[in-house]
Write a structure and sequence with these properties.
This protein is an all-alpha fold and about 230 residues long. The chain has one domain (about 10-190): Alpha Horseshoe (Serine Threonine Protein Phosphatase 5, Tetratricopeptide repeat). It has helices spanning about 5-30, 35-40, 50-60, 65-80, 85-100, 105-110, 115-120, 135-150, 155-165, 180-190. It is globular, with a radius of gyration of 19 Å. About 30% of the residues are buried. Pfam families: ENTH (PF01417). This is ENTH domain-containing protein.
Length: about 230
Amino acid sequence: MGSPSFHELRKQASFFWKEKVKAARLALTDVTPAELLTEEAMVEDAWPPDTRSMGIISRAAFEVDDYWRIVNILHKRLWKFDKEKWRGSYKALIILDHLLTHGPERISEEFQCDKEVIKEMAIFQHLDQEKFNWGLRVREKSERILKLLEEDRSFLKEERGRARKLTSGIKGFGSFNQANITKRLTKSRSHMYVPCNEDEDDDKDFGFLDHPLNKDMHQDRAPLVST
């Protein structure tokens, strides 16, 4: 076997550096593993978010602190959409799709204020060098998200039900103390992105007990990122 090429060595060095940066952020700041994973899932590269990462993010969204961190990142990424740097925003749509069908029910209300920018993405046009129509992909995903965000919620309920059926063999994931949730929510919101529903009652049900995956998040939870 030959020695690694310069390109391979460069990739290895880049990966090593990124892992060290992640470890430092986890150790020295208040960033959470779910927050880091959400950021990584929306970088401006050609690779879409993988299924495992989206599953971890959607489960983490049932924890109040991680919920606000995750939606904060998604809001910002959606509003950064432009014709030159569109991949990160497209990935945000992919993750939002997964959260709408697998995450807390409140996600639907949270992203009502992003509908205008999603409509802008629905008219995006782009062909890559191989003549692949990425504009069509972005439009299709945007249109699906807008349908999931419709006020009558019929399509959303249908898709959440479909997600639940696909994972019906997994047991329920436990319960939360609503009073404790409200207390933690109020505390965590003080330094996060102001949500779409700022004027609504903070005690409103997050849908924590309606996880389509029905998985116990407090047992055998896989690590979110490597260190």
